[in-house]
Amino acid sequence: MSNKIYPIGIQNFEKIRKEGFFYIDKTALVYQMVKTGSYYFLSRPRRFGKSLLVSTLEAYFQGKKELFEGLAMEKLEKEWIKHPILHLDLNIASNPQLSSSASFLRLNVLS
């Protein structure tokens, strides 16, 4: 058994991989999701891994092959292509009202 530390409270795939935290490899499912689907709605309870999944997808679409060394994705993906990423973290929006959400999006997308 490895002496790796569990990444409690860490939702950043790159940090988990670079700092050697314990990671259960689900990248084969990520690969399948990317190659076979079109749109996905992620509806899961809090603390269920949604942010880590999005972070993993972000690393994949940025072409960060080195983060996937030793994982299923390394063998599955043959073409590591960098794609532009638009990452909006809606958790930082303090007021969930529609008018302030529109202002938040204008400020963060158009600037």
TrEMBL record:
Protein's recorded name: AAA family ATPase
Residue intervals of the AAA-ATPase-like domain: 7-96
Cross-referenced InterPro entries: AAA-ATPase-like_dom
Any Pfam family: AAA-ATPase_like
Top-level taxon of origin: Bacteria
